[in-house]
Design brief:
The protein is an all-alpha fold. The protein is 45% helix and 0% strand. The chain has helices at 2-10, 31-34, 40-59, 72-79, 88-92, 96-117, 130-133, 153-159, 164-167, 185-191, 202-205, 220-227, 234-237, 243-249, 259-270, 281-285. The radius of gyration is 37 Å and the shape is elongated. The relative contact order is 0.05. The structure holds heme C (8 copies).
Length: 288
């Protein structure tokens, strides 16, 4: 019975025909040709298209990446970032048809291999290209939003060809040592601005963070010990870990041998004026 029903349905090309089992062959002369054939080719085409579209569609959804345990920290950070409303594809798929096709071509094997071997690791999403950022950020900045830093974007991005994430590496997926997503000075100073490849003079980049007024006092070197604790020295000096120590270790050539015993002769000969260039009176009083 069930078999009969099935055949009847398949074999009914025309609506007007009454439900007779032997419809083909009787009705029309060119029967063998008109006989209904299951559209295998179309079905296969539909399945193939589905199998191609499914991975591309899936991998464009942020939810897809949650199955990768390794990506969860990145996703959590992205949710809290300024770009939380921008899907992964916003930055990880280049604009235009070529960008899309390149992504699609990589997403298909990535999707199916993941089904087979499990969501262990994916290299589907790569470090974004600047073209992706420039879908939205079209203007080239010259100064930081706070106005305290010169950062000629065009020169860096177009002339030097530096990709945005080189500097904006903490953009969405991590925070920097200060706990925010902005670029770090460390990147500038280690990659290029090391004083050899490019300048490391503070005021070439910082228009306001120059040598502070406190330091311009003539006796700064003598009184700076007294300022420790009153001003946060680390705010400017912490990025050079040995800044203070290096200078303290850098004793003048007179200070050799048993200088503690010998310095009295130097003072007797030349007075203490020269000493006070570096030492404050308080320093001498520690022992005297
Ligand atoms: C606003 C842009 C932006 C968005 C949106 C974004 N990312 Fe990223 N992504 C980046 C940047 C910039 C990097 C490179 C710096 C880094 O590794 O954090 C990156 C790197 C990555 C990497 C490492 C690539 C590599 O080869 O090192 C993965 C994986 C990744 N993102 C996954 C995701 C996922 C998953 C989403 C969506 C939930 C997402 N990203 C959304 C900007 C973005
Ligand atoms: C789909 C659009 C879009 C894309 C793609 C995009 N952004 Fe953004 N970006 C925004 C929006 C919207 C804001 C928020 C603007 C605001 O708050 O004024 C923003 C903010 C920013 C900020 C400042 C806020 C912060 O988080 O510090 C930076 C820097 C930034 N984007 C850099 C990038 C870089 C680098 C890329 C490429 C990896 C990128 N953006 C890709 C839309 C985008
Ligand atoms: C050479 C390093 C460098 C490169 C390359 C770079 N930036 Fe920046 N960008 C910075 C610095 C430094 C700042 C200032 C950050 C601050 O003071 O908060 C900044 C600021 C920004 C801001 C404003 C941030 C805000 O808080 O509103 C945006 C937007 C931005 N960059 C987008 C981009 C985009 C898009 C690209 C690539 C086309 C790019 N940057 C390439 C270093 C760079
Ligand atoms: C090549 C450019 C460049 C040079 C040279 C440079 N800086 Fe920076 N500096 C930056 C960038 C970029 C940041 C991070 C963005 C921001 O905080 O505005 C930064 C951040 C800072 C900060 C605040 C963040 C922190 O680490 O506490 C201080 C303070 C600072 N710099 C001091 C200095 C001093 C002092 C010098 C010179 C000895 C110097 N900078 C040289 C680019 C530079
Ligand atoms: C706002 C940023 C800033 C702060 C805060 C700061 N300094 Fe400095 N300091 C500088 C800069 C910039 C220089 C010059 C660096 C250079 O030439 O490499 C400097 C130089 C010095 C020097 C060398 C002076 C010389 O004549 O060679 C000493 C000593 C010094 N700082 C001590 C301190 C001490 C101690 C504190 C905390 C009480 C402090 N600084 C806080 C920015 C700062
Ligand atoms: C160019 C800077 C400079 C000058 C000038 C200078 N000193 Fe010093 N002196 C130092 C430094 C740096 C130290 C080591 C400080 C530390 O270890 O904290 C030091 C240490 C000392 C000490 C401690 C003993 C020791 O061996 O550590 C004495 C005493 C001393 N100096 C006396 C003098 C006398 C006296 C003069 C003048 C004749 C003088 N100094 C000139 C930089 C100077
Ligand atoms: C240009 C060289 C130089 C730099 C840079 C420098 N110092 Fe000194 N520092 C000295 C000299 C010289 C003395 C001895 C002067 C005195 O005590 O009268 C000294 C003494 C001190 C003392 C008191 C002596 C001691 O060892 O207890 C303190 C505290 C101090 N410095 C802190 C700092 C800090 C913090 C920094 C970095 C932010 C710094 N100094 C950077 C040269 C320097
Ligand atoms: C670390 C301790 C120490 C410090 C700091 C120190 N002295 Fe002395 N100073 C001594 C000692 C110990 C003697 C005695 C040496 C001896 O008799 O062998 C001495 C002796 C002297 C003498 C000869 C005896 C006297 O009391 O008249 C003079 C002058 C002198 N110091 C000047 C200075 C001056 C100037 C400074 C600061 C720049 C200074 N000293 C810092 C330990 C110190």
């Amino acid at each position: 019975m069930a078999e009969n029903d099935d055949t009847r349905e398949i074999d009914m090309p025309s609506e007007d025909a009454t439900p007779e089992i032997d419809v083909p062959g009787e009705d029309t002369p060119p029967a063998p040709h008109k006989r209904f054939r299951f559209p295998w080719k179309s079905l296969i085409a539909v399945v193939v298209i589905f199998l191609l579209v499914l991975p591309v569609y899936s991998t464009l959804q942020p939810g897809y990446y949650e199955r990768y345990p390794a990506l969860r920290p990145r996703i959590d950070a992205w949710r809290q970032s300024t770009h939380a409303l921008i899907p992964c594809s916003g930055c990880h798929v280049n604009p235009g048809p070529i960008g899309f096709l390149t992504f699609a071509a990589r997403s298909i094997p990535a999707f199916y291999s993941q089904l087979v071997v499990g969501p262990n690791s994916t290299n589907l999403l790569r470090v974004p290209d600047r073209k992706a950022c420039q879908k939205c950020h079209v203007a080239y900045r010259q100064v930081s939003p706070a106005g305290d830093l010169l950062i000629p974007h065009q020169a860096h991005v177009e002339v030097l060809g530096i990709n945005c994430p080189v500097c904006h590496k903490n953009l969405v997926h991590s925070k920097n040592s200060q706990g925010y997503n902005a670029p770090e000075m460390q990147t500038c100073l280690t990659l290029c601005h090391n004083g050899v490849r490019a300048t490391n003079q503070c005021d070439k980049c910082h228009t306001k963070k120059q040598v502070p007024a406190s330091h311009h006092q003539a006796n700064w070197l003598q009184i700076h010990p007294t300022m420790v604790g009153k001003i946060d020295c680390g705010q400017c000096h912490a990025w050079q870990p040995d800044y203070c120590k290096a200078c303290h270790a850098n004793r003048p050539p007179t200070h050799v041998g048993n200088w503690k015993q010998l310095h009295q002769f130097a003072v007797a000969k030349e007075g203490d004026k020269g000493c006070l260039f570096c030492h404050g009176r308080a320093f001498c009083k520690q022992c005297h």
